[in-house]
Amino acid sequence: MPTLLKFITFCAVVAGTIFLGMYALATFVEPHPADLSFTVPSDKLRKDDQR
To answer: Rounded to whole angstroms, how far apart are CA atoms 51 and 49?
Structure first.
């Protein structure tokens, strides 16, 4: 039984660490929006009559 308790404690600590890391990233890191633009070649465009 002590081995099972150690395993459950280890899993709880790992899960808590992952959760706290995700929470810290979501709280303290601000995203920087950026405009994206690119050209699409005309031969890559599909016309409706070519189905």
So the answer is: 6
| Three-class SS state of 16 | helix
Dihedral sign from CA coordinates of 6, 8, 9, 10: positive
Higher pLDDT, 39 or 47: 39
Q: For the whole prediction, is pTM greater than 0.70?
A: no
Write b or e for each residue in 7-46: b if 16 or more Cβ atoms lie within 10 A of its Cβ, otherwise e. Answer: eeeeeeeeeeeeeeeeeeeeeeeeeeeeeeeeeeeeeeee
Q: What is the residue whose two structure tokens read 């979501």?
A: 26
The Cα 43–Cα 5 span in angstroms is 63
Report the Cα 6 to chain-centroid distance in Å.
Answer: 30
